[in-house]
Amino acid sequence: MKALIIGGAGFVGGYLINELSENGFEVHATCLESENITEKCTAHILDIMYKENIVDIFDKISPDVIYHLAAQSSVTVSWSKPQLTAEVNVIGSINVLEALRECRNGRNMRLIMIGSGEEYGYIRPEACPLSETEPLHPGNIYAATKACQEMIGEIYARAYKLDIVMVRAFNHSGAKQSSTFVISDFCKQISEIEADRKSPEICVGNLSAMRDFTDVRDVVRAYRLLAEDGISGRIYNIGRGKAVSIQYILDTALSFADADIQVKTDPKRMRASDIPIIEPDVSRIFADTGWKAEISVEQTIKDTLDYWREENKKCQI
Ligand code: A2R
């Protein structure tokens, strides 16, 4: 089986390249000119804003499965750069869909489109666990573009009979993730305190919110299984199905710390619109592929902390 990952140089891309190459796939991955990619795959330069270039790559590789990961993936950036976010996430995704329609062998390729649990947005707490049929009320620009990408994906699947599977991935974490995400943020701060590079205070936001965290290694396994067993035209939630509080994430991270650390609430980290609980129903993906999260939240936190400790050592050399 041949796989092509569009946007392979990002956080998830590196893990997906590993997952697929370890499971016998011939892996191709695209990156922007400025990015680096691992040697476990064949790299191709691609900007999804140029549809003809996507068609060329699809024709050249003729993959069995395409993973569309390329995105402006930051909620924060989506507020400051809404046009860029819409261009990459919506127009770029339409370019991918059009390329699938126009390339020579597109009817024999499966496209996995990566959306987000953020698409659900302003939910009623009693709607949890959120099933895929729950109405979407995106609460930020990033989420709105992902909902739009998905709606257009559904239209292409139906109108042009293309083989497209869509996912809504909830919070996923692991080593190498940007510290704009909570687990990575806490672990990075702890590692800096341990290394005496920061005062012994960890800055936190709203600790009562409950979110669903899955290890990125489990998430990419779900992506692989969906290529094999997912049902064409379907949308799948991907998550653990069990939310925990940010307080629990903090306490667990602190329990692994080799230092005395005070907790300090930072008003800049408090979001006025924080929804109390977001938790997906993951029975659909389990029914169709047998996938469920296997790596514990505690393990993810431990591995992320170890990653940041190593990064700190590099700074000291
Ligand atoms: O923005 P950069 O330089 O980090 O590059 C990102 C790349 N990308 C593009 N690739 C091709 N053409 C473009 N016009 C374009 N704009 C951005 O997509 C980055 O290397 C990759 C996305 O990776 P991350 O930002 O690290 O996202 P992550 O966490 O790997 O998430 C993968 C997917 C995304 O669709 C998220 O929205 C979703 O999972 O949660």
Question: Can you offer a commentary on this structure?
Answer:
With 317 residues, the chain is α/β, with parallel strands linked by helices. Helix content is 42%, strand content 17%. The longest helix has 21 residues, at 82-102. The radius of gyration is 20 Å and the shape is globular. The protein starts with a strand and ends with a helix. The structure holds ligand A2R. Ligand A2R binds next to helix 1, helix 4 and strand 5.
Features:
single chain, 317 residues, two-stranded parallel sheet, 10 helices, 13 strands, binds ligand A2R
Mean pLDDT: 95
- For the report, how would you describe the main beta sheet? 7 strands, parallel
Q: pLDDT below 50 for ≥5 consecutive residues: which ranges?
A: none
Assembly type of the chains comes to single chain
Distance between the termini: 42 Å
Q: What class, by secondary structure content?
A: alpha/beta
Number of helices: 10
Shape: globular
Topology:
Blueprint: E1 2-6, H1 11-22, E2 26-31, E3 42-45, H2 51-61, E4 65-68, H3 75-80, H4 82-102, E5 110-116, H5 141-160, E6 163-169, E7 172-173, H6 182-194, E8 201-204, E9 210-211, E10 214-215, H7 216-229, E11 235-238, E12 244-245, H8 246-255, E13 262-265, H9 283-289, H10 297-316
Parallel strand pairs: 1-2, 1-4, 2-3, 4-5, 5-6, 6-11, 7-10, 8-13
Antiparallel strand pairs: 9-12
Helix pairs in contact: 1-7, 2-4, 4-5, 6-8, 6-10
Residues 7, 9-13, 32, 35, 46-49, 69-73, 88, 92, 114, 116, 169 line the site of ligand A2R.
Report a brief summary of the structure.
The protein contains ten helices and 13 strands. The protein has 317 residues and is of the alpha/beta class.
